[in-house]
Amino acid sequence: MHIIFIGLPGSGKGVQTQRLKEHGYTHLSAGDILREFIKSNTPTALHLQTVMNKGKLISDELINQIVFDFCSNHTDHAFLFDGFPRTLEQANVLEDSPYPISNVFYLDISPETARERMITRNNEQGPRADTDTEEKISLRIKEFFASTKPLIDYYEQQGLLRRIDGEQSKDDVAKQIASHL
Prior knowledge:
Blueprint: E1 2-7, H1 13-20, E2 25-29, H2 30-38, H3 43-53, H4 60-72, E3 78-82, H5 88-95, E4 101-108, H6 111-125, H7 134-157, E5 161-165, H8 170-178
Helix pairs in contact: 2-3, 2-4, 4-5, 6-7
């Protein structure tokens, strides 16, 4: 079974999925896959880079294609979906795929905490093009509430959503997640 992590940028999705990799899961970070794809320097990759550098989301059709290409090359793995799906359309495509979802963890943090964590991440790890300005950070937060927040209701109605207080320490978040596995 596969697991989805939903949350604002900076909510700890990457941290928690890295911890679960030790249990045999394959971490599928949509952002990492897209950043790797951009290195191919194809016309599609250059278009993606332009969109991502503005802090905007990639089209559903294109992200679905890129994610499922990755999945098809790792057919014997259970996935930790990090940053995918982000829209109801992506969720519907995932639901019709051969990757059944057992849990959806929503790492719930405030927009203020997300902003602080993205700034801290930029200062500690170097700026990322999609969060290197206050305007882009604000846009990422706005995009989350506009495009991704409906997923929370969608997965809650299916009985798959697990709300996790992402404001807690990393260890406490991990314990809360483990209690649902």
